From TrEMBL:
All residue ranges annotated as the Fibronectin type-III domain in the record: 633-728, 730-827, 832-934, 938-1034
Topology relative to the membrane: Single-pass type I membrane protein
GO biological process: axon guidance; brain development
Annotated protein name in UniProt: Neuronal cell adhesion molecule-like isoform X10
Signal sequence residues: 1-23
Residue spans crossing the bilayer: 1048-1069
Amino acid sequence: MMDRPKDGPLALLLLLLGHMISALEVPLDPKLLEELPQPPTITHQSPKDYIVDPRENIVIHCEAKGKPHPSFSWTRNGMHFDIDKDPKVLMRPGSGTLVMDISGGERSEAYEGIYQCSAHNELGTAVSNSIVIRQSRSPLWSKERISPIIAQKGQSLILHCRPPAGLPPPIIFWMDNNFQRLPQSRRVSQALNGDLYFSNVQPEDSRSDYICYARFPHTQTIQQKQPISVRVLDMDSLNDTLADYLNDTDLFSDKPAEERAPVFMVPSESVSSKMVLRGEVLEMECVADGLPTPAVSWVKRNGEIPSGRASFLNFNKTLRIMDVSEADAGEYRCFAKNRHGSVHHSIRVTVNAAPYWISAPRNLVLAPKEMGIITCRAAGHPKPSIRWLVNGLPIEDAPKDPSRRVEEDTLIFSEVQTGSSAVYQCNASNLYGYLLSNAFVNILAEPPRVLTLPNIIYQVIRNKPALLECVVFGSPVPTITWFKDSRSSMLEGNAYVFHENGALEIHMSQPSNSGKYTCVARNNLGISENHVYLEVKEPTRILRPPEYQVVQRNRDVVFECKAKHDPSLVPTMTWLKDDRELPDDERFRVDSDRLTITDVTESDAGTYTCIMNTTLDQDSASAQLTVVEQPGVPTDLELTDPGARSVQLTWTPGDEHNSPIKKFLIQYEDALHQSGVWHNLTEVPGTKTTAHLKLSPYVHYSFRVLALNDVGFSHPSMPSRQFRTSPAAPDENPTEVKGHGTEHNNLVITWKPLTPLQANGPGLQYKVMWRQLDMEKDWTSVSVANVSKFVVSGTPTFVPYEVMVQALNDYGPGPKPSAVIGYSGEDFPSAAPGNVRILVLNSTLAEVHWSPVSLESVRGRLQGYKVHYSRERSLHRHNSHQGKQRTEIFSPNKTSGMLPDLLPYSVYSLRVTAFNGRGEGPSSVPQRFETPEGVPGTPSFFKVSAIDLDSLTLEWGPPHERNGRLSGYTFKYQTVNSKNDLGLLEELDLPSNQSSFTLHNLSHSTRYKFYISARTQRGSGPTLTEEAVTILDRAMVSPQVDIATQGWFIGLMSAIALLILILLIICFIKRNKGGKYPVKEKEDAHGDPEIQPMKEDDLTFGEYSDEDHKPLKGSRTPSSGTVKRDGSDDSLVDSGDTQFNEDGSFIGQYSGRSDRDATHDSSEPPSPVNAMNSIV
């Protein structure tokens, strides 16, 4: 075939026509396809190599579309296939699919051949591939007698399968009589041809049921070869069995097999070659004989084996490369190696290729007078040849068309005319296959049509691209322009991308891009337009993503995920665990913006992702959950390297549970001395699993280990085996050795005893030693057991001793102890401090001085001095109370001290003693001293005793604590207004013998505040205060005219009494009839505490209370003689007696009867006055 022209004008023409082709494809719109004429197109066909099952009907598919719908015809082996002549062959209605019915016993071999389908309509003919029909075959195994095989141990062996040839080839596998696959290994394996190879046989290979099976895929039948018997002999048994099999068997060798270097069994030659087609699977194998069994490896010379497509199978004996490409060609080497040597084999691989498409022909739609091209480009090895057909006929045999020109793999059309539509076939073929493709040329003249639905609303997220579709069809190809909101200005500029298919793209959508868009399609036959709308939404964003969480097992955990989104979009929050749905577990609770997991378990650990979805976009964020808990229990405790006082402990750590182990705690139990009690022995870092333990003698140890992480300690491990140490002499002596006396003639030696662990052996005792410091050379000693003190009697008083305590047991004494200094017991001091002097500083403070006692008289360690003092009496005749004794303690280096908090104007007695650890010595001679006067205490009471219009009388009592001779009282007073503001303060000095005072010329109805304090020569004491109010009118305290004696009042009361009497009679009558007077219910309901209820027994009203402790409403009860500020100041006029309390409050009865007749006999008629008073 001729080379393609390389001239510039043709290349430019092809480029231009290629652009036109891409613009004239018919859109797959159903309505449009129904209206437009279209040449046939093959849509479905059977594979080129079609193997059929002889037990089923043969179905050869051929489906096509076109307008008008195509009709179908077939050829068989290049000749027209008349289906009407064979009643067993049917063509499906509306389809070209053939069905060959062989259910009546017809043989499918009769229909084998090469079939090709043609689909026709008035615009052209499309043809299918050549479909080769072959029947699947599964022939039987040829019968043969297979002799048993005897092999010497170590020899190589091949068991041949040689299955019958089938279509397609069978799948081979080896099994035994029980249909169990025979085990394979690096020593025994199945080759690609199905044979079973033994690199060297072993006695365990002896068996009588080596069976090769062949499975034929299409018929799903399995056939079996006759079983093969193999017996493997070694040198000792060979001679014994030779005679039995000599006449009936093959013997492989008469010499014992020895170890040997590898030799290839497959391939047998040193160099081999293999050809594979591009896209297929390349399999190469190397099986080697050798003892010991060789190991096989692979390399590629001058290249690498493709790791992504290559795999090593059959124990590295097979190299498989998938989807082979030209780059896989080259030389491959397999190596077989054992300890006696190595061998290699080279396989030269060549890669050829059946034709494959580079650019398959595409349908072409042209308008009259337009130009276009159809290109058919294929590659292969060898290079495929291109052959063109038109409507199924070779193009050179087809009618001539002046608008068509063939240029090798390209058809060029120019100035096409209506009626020149056709289907063109391109056939690319070489030695290894062919490609056939149909492409039609359809000549159409159509005005523009916009196929996109009108008024579509596109929604897009801000800053994301927007693609507005405008699918159009027309012939010639329409030009498309876009407008926004109105058609006044066409869209253009870098912000927009106009695609060849008519779509408008906006790279970065902004809110300003929202609105109405119009696309307009034009060609020389018409115009069409469509409107769409764009809405730009705010993006969805997660504002608060979930955070990494570390939580203990069985606790709760909460992941928060807060997001924002466009308010017009409906959001959906979804949670994932490890990119999958959350477990179906009620412990997982999803709220609007959080995920709560309760009672967390280890399986809950992982990555949790919250996804906020809208219809347009989504945002997601993830966080890790780590579940931690105490470490797992250490296991496998083992004791090694035992020593006299040491042992090595090792263990296996438990699971860390996501929290690194920080340390291990090793504990021990002493079964000899304290069984069941565990003690801490040592700690090691968490990175170690062994510890060298230092031990004590005479202990029966058991050890256990605990692990610690940030959560806490693990459970203890199981105890180790017991480890016993031998007894020894003590390594240490008792501590805290002390010597002190409890009596004046003894020395008590104490110490802290050794623990059983420190005893180091049985028979623990303590050797107690002592001697007087600087007085004795020899030590006095005694041995004691089970005690922690020893008392030395008959010692001098308070002298120093050297003291030692040494531990010893049945195996010897402990180390030499160190001496400590102790003192024997103290005695009471024998002398009192002398020269006691007292200096009174003020009325409450005095200073005492004394001379220290001599050192000899202390008879111990001087700890200080005590000053005992007490108040004997007051200098005032009215107060001679004696006080409690008090004591002040001073350090031994002091010879003076202060006596605080004395009472003024009093007589005190005082004595001084010295004291040591035993107690106090004799007292000094008692001394007396007097304190001067001080300021007095507060007066004992202060009250207002009488109130008048312009005067007030006040009373008070002298202070309980006079602290001297009273020289008088200071009296002050001032007014207080309604706002509690204080007026001008007035002051009076009163003599000490005065206990009351009356203030005159005061303002009426005015509140006053009073102050009083006592004085001595040293000054005034604390102040007492009181308040009172003068009255408004003197009538409040004068006798009043009794209103009950006035005539008008008596008449009024008589009329009221008559009315009440009538009411009482009516009530009495109703009561006797079982009725109830309703007034009584109302009175009971009101419950006025000042009106007593009517007594039903005598039909009389209760009287007003005349008890002093039940005041009238509005009256004030005195409290400690103080006038309340919130009381009423109004005067009260009453017909009864009126009186005022000492604080000015009104406490008279509001009644017409005196106290004497407060009670009366029930038979006495009620007084009208009393009745009125009760009502009022």
